[in-house]
Amino acid sequence: MSPPKLAAIKGMNDILPPVSGQWEWLEGIVRSLMARHAYRNIRTPIVEPTQLFVRGLGEVTDIVEKEMYSFEDRLNGEQLTLRPENTAGVVRAVVEHSMLYEGGKRLYYMGPMFRHERPQRGRYRQFHQIGAEALGFAGPDVDAELILLADALWRELGLTDVRLEINSLGQLDERQRHRAELIAYLERHADQLDEDARRRLHSNPLRILDTKNPAMQSLVEGAPRLIDFLGAASLAHFAGLRAILDANDIAYRINPRLVRGLDYYNLSVFEFVTDRLGAQGTVCAGGRYDGLIGEIGGKPAPAVGWALGVERVLELLREQGTEAPALQPDVYAIVPDAQAMPLVLRTLRALRAAGVSVQMHAASAEGLGSMKSQFKKADVSGARHALIFGADELATGEVTLKSLRDGAGAQSRRVLAQVDEWAASLKP
Fold first, then answer.
1. What pLDDT does residue 412 have?
2. Which member of 21, 191, 210, 240 has the lowest number of beta carbons within 10 Å of its beta carbon?
3. Model confidence over 33-82: pLDDT tens digits?
């Protein structure tokens, strides 16, 4: 008997062609955009010490309490975790390698993250994020720069159905004063709290304001607002951010209930949200985290950043009918006779070196197949041209070039002598 078929873990998905081409298209746009904004790529390990996330994200956050994939290293007993997000990892790398010694850094990353939760649309156990982090910069101008960077990405992708929400969480002493008032308010209405809110009441009451429970919405609306506890410096920072957004015609809504789910945030926080993805409507989110570098062991320094969910962005593009350009070869090589293969591959090697994308017809167990079947495969490939390596043409040192899309007639081209001259005409 054959062994049982193995399948991927639920919520950890294979990304196959042609869908993987959409990912490459998005990633290519991001790389170009980041380069124009002078953000440089950083790549950190998928596995980090568990304590990094306990200290960095907060011990009473949902991620640390319920969602992390953590395990003991069998070699040395070290507690390790598959990264549930990457800001903490980036900060760890910046501190470990003293990257701020010569000044601030603008960095970006792409890669998989892992959270142990119930898979649903737009929410997977292995998911992918693209993030941008600016470390060592204290002013609201860099907060605004990051928001403008995300807005530029939406414009390049053609995303229209996203809106920006912003808030300020102020500084620690301001949050502590608000926290005391918030707990007192919630205790007066304890009979209206659900189980999750009662659990958070004294450990992380700010997260109660972000509840999705419809029965608690009126209670939350009447809660003390953090923005009313901000001092002059925090208000000035928030005003500076808003002034830059206004000057750049960036529409936004101040959402006093926007608190984010991680303990490391302070001052500016923001989210780009959509109504098209149901409960998973947050497409991109971030904010300032000035205390995280010191918390992880570095010399205290300001920082701000955001992360977007790749799966959610691609799903949103599909929802609004935006199609990523298909990745198709420029040329399909048709080979009637296997004896021509040495010259075929030599020619295709020269074309590829000149920048032409070429798919070669390859033999199956039954051989190369008929010309008719090869032309069918050439058509399915999406190639704009076919190169036909027929015996008559090769006898005179030529190959036939035939358009597959616009009905143009066939042309004869010198096999190798003219490759550099005619390669440009084969590219889109």
1. 57
2. 191
3. 999 999 999 999 999 999 999 888 877 677 887 889 999 999 999 999 99
Which tokens in the block code for residue 326? 């298909």
Shared domain check, 364 and 248: no
Burial category of 382 from C-beta neighbours within 10 Å (exposed 0-12, middle 13-18, buried 19 and up): middle
CA distances from 201 to 67, 183, 187, 221 (A): 20, 7, 8, 16
Q: Tell me if the bond preceding 342 is cis, omega within 30° of 0.
A: no
What distances in angstroms separate CA 69 from CA 122, 296, 373, one per listed residue?
A: 19, 20, 50
Q: What angle do CA 234, 250, 127 make, to 5 degrees?
A: 85
Binding site listing: 85-87, 115, 129, 133, 260, 264-265
What integer pLDDT is reported at residue 420 of this predicted model?
A: 63
- Binding site listing for L-histidine: 85-87, 115, 129, 133, 260, 264-265
266 and 368 part of one domain: no
Verify that 126 and 271 share a domain, yes or no.
Answer: yes
Per-residue pLDDT, 410: 57
Same domain, 310 and 338: no
Structure tokens that stand for 125 in this block: 């156990």
**Both structure tokens of 297:** 């062991």
Written as six digits, the tokens of 111 are 């890669």
**pLDDT at residue 417 above 70?**
no
Give yes or no for a contact between 10 and 125, defined as CB atoms under 8 angstroms apart. Answer: yes
